[in-house]
Amino acid sequence: MEDRKNQIKDLEHKEPEDTPLQKQESKRIQKVESNVRNLWDNFKRTNIRIMGVPEEREQNTENILKGIVTENFPHLVKELDLQVQEVHKTPNKRNPKRTTPRHIIIKITRAKDRERILKAARAKQVVTYKGAPIQLSADLSTETMHARWEWQEIFKVMNSKNLQPKILYPAKLSLRIKGQIKSFTNKKKAKGVYHCQTRII
Q1: Which H or E run includes 127?
Q2: CATH number of 150-198
Q3: pTM, 2 dp
Q4: What is the rounded distance in angstroms from the CA atom of residue 169 to the CA atom of residue 185?
């Protein structure tokens, strides 16, 4: 009698499996979401996101990027034809009273120029504006940014172990293990491979 009660409880708590039709629909939705994300990221392909620039009342945002390039990458000043198409600051959605400066989004004309600036920023590591440290990054869709952010904890650990991790588009982790470069989209697999190869974590 007790065994039968336990079996009934197990059946009550067992979640029903998705039908083939539901699985197919789920895959279709994921594909549509991925396509929308890629379209949005492609639309932003010439955007640069600038973080950490102090707020000023009379701030000429159009000249900020040129100032950053001149201050940090003088060798690029003559090589790049920086033409700013659009500039705006991100709104304070979460907390309008927060003291941290808003991000500045600058749209330029050529994606190649954006990549050269971001590559130079990664090589320099410490980028400044008027002497204050700032950050430069690609401006991606909210979904892509969130997916990439989820790798940060693993990225920091692997970077501390000199595995040369990189976040690849849209949200894959690439790292070097015993001279070989491996990439992962699944966090558990990345941790598992790292654990097996190094026996550290």
Answers
A1: strand 127-129
A2: 3.30.250.20
A3: 0.69
A4: 10
- Our CA angle for 49, 54, 59, nearest 5°, is 85
| Residue range(s) in the chain whose domain bears CATH number 3.30.70.1820 | 41-140
Please give the radius of gyration of the chain, using alpha carbons only, rounded to the nearest integer: 23
Task: Please tell me which of 7-21, 71-85, 89-103, 154-168 the model is most confident about, judged by mean pLDDT.
Answer: 71-85
Could you tell me the two tokens for 141? 């869709």
Task: Identify the CATH number of the domain defined by range 41-140.
Answer: 3.30.70.1820
Dihedral sign, Cα of residue 79, residue 140, residue 127, residue 89:
positive
DSSP 63: G
Tell me the C-alpha distance between 116 and 43, whole Å: 18
Q: Inform me whether the pLDDT recorded for 10 exceeds 60.
A: no
**What's the chain's average pLDDT?**
80
> How far apart are alpha carbons 48 and 31 in whole angstroms?
27
Each residue's pLDDT tens digit, 15-25: 567 788 888 88
Q: Could you give the residue range(s) of every CATH 3.30.250.20 domain in the chain?
A: 150-198
Comparing 45-49, 72-76, 114-118, 160-164, the range with the smallest average pLDDT is 160-164
Place of tokens 């990664």: 122
- What are 94-98's contacts with CB under 8 Å, separation 24+? none
pLDDT(200) > 50: no
